[in-house]
Amino acid sequence: MTSVLFVCHSNSVCSPIAEALLNHLAADRYRVMSAGVQPVAIDANALAALNKLNVDTSGLESKGLDAVADEYFDIVVSLCEQAEAAAGAVPAERFMAWHFTDTPCCSETDASKLTQEIYERIKLLVLVQDRQEKTLW
Q1: Which residue of 9, 26, 90, 119 could cross-link 82, Cys pair, CB 3.0 to 4.6 Å?
Q2: How far is Cα of residue 104 from the mean position of the Cα atoms in its chain?
Q3: Which InterPro entries does this entry report, sorted A to Z (predicted)?
Q4: What fold does the segment set 2-133 form as a domain?
Q5: What is the rounded average pLDDT of the residues 85-106?
Q6: What are the domain boundaries of the chain?
Q7: pLDDT tens digit string along 8-32?
Q8: What is the rounded distance in angstroms from the CA atom of residue 89 to the CA atom of residue 69?
Q9: Nearest partner of 78 among 61, 95, 55, judged by Cα
Q10: Taken in order 79, 34, 71, 22, is the CA torsion positive or negative?
Q11: Taking residues 25-44, what's their average pLDDT?
């Protein structure tokens, strides 16, 4: 099972969205967590955007990097520039930087757009990861 950590500055918008989406798409193949450099409560519009897509948000909570301090991940993904250095310091086999604006969503429309953008990246990650794990013979 591939372990993935999504990191953003506040763990209130981008990283919880990414965590919920990857769990929604492939919870059987991925152990997914999210964390923030300076966590605050998860944005209500981010939750609404996920719920609108019937993505399970139960158990989703904002947490800091200290909550994953003793973990090792196969993949760590930084979702904003402000979190890149901190995310890069987390022990992992691979590090990726996907830069989104990590600010509280102004509206449900903004949250829905951001959710779609993250969803497209998540689908690509799963596709590439699945292909890397399959052998030709």
Answers
A1: 9
A2: 15
A3: Ptyr_pPase, Ptyr_pPase_sf
A4: Rossmann fold (3.40.50)
A5: 83
A6: 2-133
A7: 988 989 999 999 999 999 999 999 9
A8: 10
A9: 95
A10: negative
A11: 93
Residue type, 107: S
Burial of residue 39 (number of CB atoms within 10 Å: 0-12, 13-18, 19+): buried
Alpha helices in the chain (DSSP H): 14-26, 44-52, 84-88, 108-133
Asked whether the beta carbons of 31 and 3 are under 8 A apart, the reply is yes
Q: Which positions ≥6 away from 105 have C-beta within 8 Å?
A: 13, 43, 45, 46, 49, 111, 114
* Whole-number Å distance between alpha carbons of 71 and 118: 24
Average predicted confidence (pLDDT) for the chain: 89
| pLDDT tens-digit map of 78-92 | 998 888 999 989 999
Model confidence band, residue 120 (pLDDT cutoffs 50, 70, 90): very high
Report the C-alpha gap between 74 and 60 in whole angstroms. Answer: 21
Percent of the chain residues past pLDDT 70, beyond the cut: 92
pLDDT of residue 30: 94
Measured CA to CA in angstroms, residue 34 lies from 21, 59, 61, 91, 106 at distances of: 11, 12, 9, 14, 22
